[in-house]
Amino acid sequence: MTLAFRDGPLYFPVTAYGADGEVDLATTAQVLAEGLAHDPGGVFPACGTGEFHALSSAESLAVARVAIDTVAGRVPVVAGVGGPVGQAVASVRELAAMGADGVLLLPPYLVGSTQEGLARYVSAVAEASTLPVIVYHRGSARFSAETFARLLAEQPTIMGFKDGIGDVALAQEIVLAARRVRDDVQFFNGLLTAEASQAAYRAIGIPLYSSAVFAMAPRIANAFYRAYTAGDADACDRLLEGFYHPLVALRDTTPGYAVSLIKAGLRLSGAAVGGVRPPLTDPGDAHTERLRRILDAGERMLAGS
């Protein structure tokens, strides 16, 4: 049941929009294919960086189908599902039929719940197909160690846990509880700009991480990944100080920039991916120029290495 990711950063591609604001599947496929040329370990379409929150269920499934067709079995494709439980269940069944390799289960829509209610939500999706499910520990989907361990015992299709909350003590508690139940669970760091916190996450048993940066600057993301997997702390530190920390500082100026900056970076490279859908906002000229300088600095670091 474990997803067979290749050796490389996990790729969370953007969803492109045309001038009319509608999803542009052709450009989405083109940009995704360009990213594939840089050898990611897996592809996660219509997830956070792909603006799952802003897509209709039909749009998210169309984006996933494009990813499946474009990837053509080279690496696993794990598509985003979530929101209302009925929508999530229907989507996971569609994704299984179209050949997805797994799903990333985002939080339920709007409402909070008890741990029992959260477990029922996850179980409804896990039981809807045989696809492997990675649960996203984020927002209203905040799991206790007891709840996640129970889900692993009851739902064999749950094979992953992605932390997007940043409570390292709780994350370690969940890792340890999960290991007592099953030894086939994969753990992911899903914090914003995850490279900036990955050293800490690896130390508590979470070796995999999302790379939104790969979607706009794959050479830089690959350089960090190679240094990280080789245990080259000095190279990681140089990239953190020269590229990732300035990017995080810019990201933190404005809510939603974790996605908006990625699309802006692609536009700077000439990709016609459009802007972001509301409620996110695109960076203005000053922030776009600041992003350009950060990207240029990262590329110069690679040239000088």
Structure overview:
The chain is α/β, with parallel strands linked by helices and 305 residues long. It contains 11 helices and 8 strands. It has helices spanning 25-36, 57-71, 85-98, 115-126, 145-154, 168-181, 198-203, 218-230, 233-251, 257-268, 285-304; strands at 10-11, 42-43, 78-81, 102-105, 133-137, 158-163, 186-189, 208-211. An 8-stranded parallel β-sheet has the order 2-1-8-7-6-5-4-3.
Secondary-structure map with pairings?
Elements: E1 10-11, H1 25-36, E2 42-43, H2 57-71, E3 78-81, H3 85-98, E4 102-105, H4 115-126, E5 133-137, H5 145-154, E6 158-163, H6 168-181, E7 186-189, H7 198-203, E8 208-211, H8 218-230, H9 233-251, H10 257-268, H11 285-304
Parallel strand pairs: 1-2, 1-8, 3-4, 4-5, 5-6, 6-7, 7-8
Helix pairs in contact: 1-2, 2-3, 3-4, 4-5, 5-6, 8-9, 9-11, 10-11
How do you describe this structure in short?
With 305 residues, the chain is of the alpha/beta class.
Structural class: alpha/beta
Task: Give the SSE order as H and E letters.
Answer: EHEHEHEHEHEHEHEHHHH
Give the overall form: globular
N/C terminus separation: 39 Å
Question: What is the average of the pLDDT values?
Answer: 97
Helical coverage, percent range? 40-55%
DSSP strand content: 5-15%
Q: How many beta-strand segments?
A: 8
Strands of the largest sheet, in order across it? 2-1-8-7-6-5-4-3
Keywords:
alpha/beta; 11 helices; 8 strands; 48% helix
